[in-house]
Design brief:
This protein has 127 residues and is of the alpha+beta class. It has one domain: Hypothetical protein yfbM fold (3-Layer(aba) Sandwich), CATH 3.40.1760.20. Helix 4 runs antiparallel to helix 5 and helix 5 packs antiparallel against helix 6.
Length: 127
């Protein structure tokens, strides 16, 4: 039997330009994430990976005044907040000695934030 921590998946997504997500709720985001629309930028994490990235999520939560974590969804709508997250994540990644998997995941999350900022899109944490 597969452990429950490997069954649930935790998605971070920035929708492609074909999707107007400015009025999305979390339910709308989930519905659209599972549609066969290509070119969405996303990361799918396991519970173990989310837990191992607690420092990254703490940075995001501090900037966004949120509680993103296991079973805590959120949306970041503000391009100013996204820009602050980019700066803080870049600083964190550049000033830490990270394990290879943590560095890889941190950089993927940073790239999602950069993409969201560049295209003025929301970033969704479907946890």
């Amino acid at each position: 039997m597969t452990p429950i921590s490997q069954v649930f998946k935790y998605e971070i997504v920035v929708f492609n330009d074909e999707v107007d997500d400015h009025e999305f709720t979390l339910v709308s985001a989930r519905d659209n994430f599972y549609q066969p629309i290509s070119n969405n930028q996303s990361i799918v994490l396991t519970e173990v990976e989310v837990n191992s990235m607690f420092k990254v999520f703490n940075i995001i939560n501090e900037v966004n005044d949120s509680m993103i974590g296991i079973h805590e969804d959120d949306i970041i709508y503000s391009n100013d907040i996204i820009k602050q997250c980019v700066f803080r994540l870049e600083t964190y990644i550049n000033n830490q000695s990270l394990e290879s998997r943590e560095e890889e995941l941190s950089n993927k999350i940073l790239e999602l934030f950069k993409d969201a900022y560049k295209r003025n899109k929301n970033i969704y944490f479907l946890f």
